[in-house]
Design brief:
The protein has one domain (4-25, 34-262): UDP-N-acetylmuramoyl-L-alanine:D-glutamate ligase (3-Layer(aba) Sandwich). The chain is built from ten helices and ten strands. It has 263 residues and is of the alpha/beta class. Strands 1-10-9-8-7-6-5-2-3-4 form a ten-stranded mixed β-sheet, sandwiched between helices. The protein has helices at residues 20-23, 46-58, 72-75, 98-107, 121-133, 153-156, 167-176, 189-202, 235-248, 253-262; strands spanning 8-11, 34-39, 62-68, 82-85, 110-115, 137-141, 161-164, 206-211, 214-219, 222-227.
Length: 263
């Protein structure tokens, strides 16, 4: 592997790498983009609810949240932002939810598979079909990642896709994809950056992950690192913020995702 000086960009807590993005944000919410958040099952919807809140804080124009209809009776009165799609008898998304997925995605500038999908074979088929059919920005995090670990080809080859995942999930995805270099917990920062560089030059997917209390963003071989002290329960928050910045800067993916992890 090559030295990381040419493709490793270091962002500090007090100095964003791309300050010009801060000054070019839409002042009017009507022009700040539309985000679709998908997730939840009959036993929980904390991830999509948190993503809804965090995208609002990040400055998105409007967010829709698509939940399985098994949640409608319990959630409908307390979460007005929810919309609903067909669910399985166990309360996860059913295959027949695909039409709602695609219709709402056509409305949105970006889509976030936020998590709390549970474990369901029918949902697995749905998510794979959706990832192959939907055209546009797609961010995947939390247990939504797990649905693509055993057969990651559809998500790794897809354009405009960001995976926000733990080191353990990244290890599994890379191994299943037969990537020749392993991601390991004992890697120093330079070796980790070099491996992210190689992985995202090999696969079209964008990566956001954490290693050694540092958040890494990798896009087409370019890697940024942001040292953070608050990396507990980080995935949903970062996913919502990164998705928001990305849909507002669709032609500056690396810059947008790096700025999304700054806040």
């Amino acid at each position: 592997m090559m030295a990381g000086d040419s493709f490793w960009h270091k962002q500090t807590a007090g100095k964003p790498l791309f300050p010009e993005l801060l000054w070019s944000r839409p002042e009017n919410r009507a022009y700040a983009g539309k985000l679709l958040v998908i997730g939840g099952n009959a036993h929980g919807f904390s991830a999509p609810a948190e993503a809804f809140a965090e995208s609002g804080k990040a400055g998105v124009g409007v967010t829709r949240v698509l939940l399985p209809d098994a949640l409608q009776k319990t959630v409908g009165k307390v979460f007005a932002a929810g919309e609903y799609a067909p669910s399985t008898p166990s309360g996860s998304f059913a295959q027949t939810a695909l039409s709602e997925y695609l219709a709402d995605s056509n409305w949105a500038d970006g889509v976030l598979l936020a998590g709390d999908f549970g474990k369901n074979s029918e949902t697995a088929i749905l998510l794979e079909k959706y990832a192959s059919k939907h055209v546009g920005q797609l961010t995947v995090t939390n247990d939504a990642i797990d649905y693509f670990i055993t057969s990651p080809a559809v998500i790794l080859a897809r354009a405009d896709t960001t995976l926000i995942l733990t080191l353990s999930q990244l290890q599994k995805v890379a191994k299943t994809a037969h990537f020749p270099h392993a991601f390991t917990s004992d890697m120093d920062l330079l070796r980790f950056v070099e491996t992210l560089h190689a992985f995202t030059k090999t696969h079209r997917v964008h990566i956001i992950t954490v290693h050694l209390d540092t958040i890494f963003v990798a896009v087409n071989g370019q890697v940024s690192s942001t040292k953070r002290s608050d990396v507990m329960d980080w995935r949903t928050k970062i996913a919502a913020r990164a998705s928001t910045w990305w849909l507002q800067n669709p032609n500056k993916t690396f810059q947008a995702l790096t700025t999304g992890v700054f806040f």
